[in-house]
Design brief:
Butyryl-CoA Dehydrogenase, subunit A, domain 3; 3 domains; alpha+beta; eight-stranded mixed beta sheet; Butyryl-CoA Dehydrogenase, subunit A, domain 2; 11 helices; 409 residues; Butyryl-Coa Dehydrogenase, subunit A, domain 1
Amino acid sequence: MADVTDAPIFDPIAFRLDGEQADLIARVRQLAAERFAPRAAQHDREASFPTENYRDLRAAGLLAICIPRAHGGLGADYRTYALAAAEIARYCGATALTWNMHVGSTLWAGALADDLDMDASTRAEHARRRALHFRRIVADGAIYAQPFSEGNASAVGSIPFGTVATPVDGGWRVTGRKVFASLSGHAAYYGVLCTEVAADARASRRNTAYLAIPANAAGVSVTGEWDPLGMRGTVSRTLEFANVFAEHDAALMPRGLYFQSALRWPHMFLLLTPTYLGLAQAAYDFTVSYLRRGRRGSVVKQLVVAEMRIKLEQTKALWFQAISEAHVDPTPEQRLRAYAAQFTTMETANDLARLAIRTCGGHSMLRSLPLERIYRDSRCGSLMAPWTAEVCLERIGHGALYNEGETDT
């Protein structure tokens, strides 16, 4: 591959990345710039899934980026993956966002689960099961989705998931519905969060199960159209599960471990932000490149570029700090910083795209150029559950004014 002239979003020396991290991220950036960027407009216009990009990701070993080396993967940690994902988003937001759903499945079952409490037998059984999932990805190139939303309060943790897994001989019967389910019709397995409920039991968030259901299982269907404002290449149609059988080895996590992880490893939900950090960089990159072709002499435009650079640097600094301190049982301050990083990244990405359109002028909105797609894709970030912009603001405000367990009574 030819050298890519774009500088990395995070300079390895300035941000103290080691050589292995820098090399992997550079390889990802080169792949995205050369292969994904030329295809992005077509997938956006057609609302078609970037299948070719996934073939390239597999060939580069990047479907297994966070699978441990012992299982045949690249063994990248949380931060390294996040930095790589931001570089992909710089060139194709939809590919980065769907790749996150796949990689998140391996991180949740992998390094994240290792930090959580399990008894010895449960841990051994989890290790055996996740090895099966890792093998499918490494050996077969299987793509895992992560359908989450149900159009209710379950995604933000207020109520149990409405998708129900009823225990039966050999596994579960799953019934329910997931909306905005990225990779619908294109993943080999859907990692479904559902509530395990026996016939005589009440639904509880503590009994959340995380099951990898084969896309070709009887009772699985993809419904509805996909014609949204942005992120059109994610093909996030609705998934229906009608009495679908899932065997015991479908479990990506033991029952209840997701509930523990949501409480103790909250940065798992920050992994949507690399996509929007990359889009923020893309908006700035476009503006500088566009104005350097003949309109950079305007002082007014120089001032807007300066404002964009300041906003971008502020966002990068906060985001990098937040992903660097992701670990089990973060302090209250680290939790608040994670919410602040989520809110800032999602809002700033679209703000930079807005400023880019204003200062570059009318021609920048043509579909032959990427800025109008960047604008539409970036507008979707603040809506992403479970940490929507409103959820982040509420939790930051409450967390700043109340210590854990405090009330006004």
